[in-house]
Amino acid sequence: MSTRRYFRRSLFAFLRDLRATNNRQWFLANRTRYESAVCAPLLKFIADFGPQLRSISRRYVADPRPIGGSMFRTYRDVRFSSDQSTYKTNAGAQFRHVAAMDVHAPGFYLHLSPREVFIASGVWEPDGQARTMIRDAIITRPQAWRRGKSPAFKATVSS
Question: Same domain, yes or no, for 148 and 99?
Answer without folding.
Answer: no
